Amino acid sequence: MTEYMHRRQSSDKEKTVLVVISIIAALLLWAYVVTQVNPTIRHMIPNVPVQLLNTESLAARGLAVAGPTEYTINVTVEGRRSDIRKLEANQILAEVDLFGWSKGENYIPVTIRMPDSIRLADGKANRIKVVIEELVELNKPVTIVLKGSLPDQTEAGEIVIQPDEIKVSGAKSAVESVQDLQAIIEASELGEEGARLQADLIPVNKDGIKVDTVHLSATFVDIDYELLRIKEVGLIVKLTGELSGGRQPQLTYPETIKIKGRKDVIKDITEIKTDSVDLTKHPEGGAVDLKLQLPDGILPIETYQKIQLIIKPVSQGTRSFQYSAEQVQLRGLPDEYSATSEPSTINISVSGPKEQVDELTAGQLQLFVDAANVKEGRQTLPLQIEAKRGGLSFKPDPSALVFNVGAAKNEQ
After folding, report:
1. What percentage of the chain carries pLDDT values higher than 70?
2. CATH number of the structural domain 230-314
């Protein structure tokens, strides 16, 4: 009996030891899981957006946030690995309350909200620098920006912008940096019939860079336009009076100009005249601004907004040359006719700029008659003269020659 009891006691002790060992092993396993498998870790979440609260309270006091209004911070959090892994960026909420802050540089604490199982690693709130300035409102002009190329021989005509100024409000430095408001239109949208377009507005600074931190009283404008045709036409300069001393004006001006107008208006225009220029008012010559007589709806293109007539007084000279009738060419004489001129001596009086007249030779003048429409018999044909030099005038004596026209003789 004693031996039995002894064995039983030994067995109970062994069981107790096993239970204790199991408990210790479980505790050790739990501690391992807690400290090694799911430990406490830190994690940095970059670029968490910061919301600005109570901006309207600044506006009520005539203030506004200057510079970028989109702030971000990096947030370092701490928690169990499993909780950190489940953490999403949108579960971190960062806010800054602007109520009560004043003009100048302000370092305002950021309130951070997150799930209860997560905490800030250092326990300290971040601060961000917020610059607060005076709230101002200024009118800024609207400028058209045309993108692309217009069709050949066309140009944008008058463009009416409604409204042509827009109120821009915001922090003083931002508003004052706005040079103008660009209304961008595509050239492909313009047609010759004209139309009304709407264009969005982009506030830009002097370098053409968009200013994002301002508010516009309107975000678009209406644009009325017309597309004009371009045409090259002759320029007719009207002169009155004479230069003194028998001098003649040597004139320099563009023989043609380019004008623009609606297609239906410009199609029948072939020349543009100027107001008269009185030579007696310019005895020594010089440059004279020409005033164009433009029909309604017609304008010169930009290159011809200012056109000048250059007047150079030139002394005149006169010379005479003598020719025989045999030296006159018959041009265009039909093959079935032959013609002979009656004997005649021809005197040609040449007048023009003295320098040119003095250098002229008899061989530089070509005398001819137009014989294309002659008939048989005695014909009187006007004498014509060609010269290799321009700016000269000719007076032939006689002014016409007599030719005897007959049938051409066949050569055997």
Report:
1. 92
2. 2.170.120.40
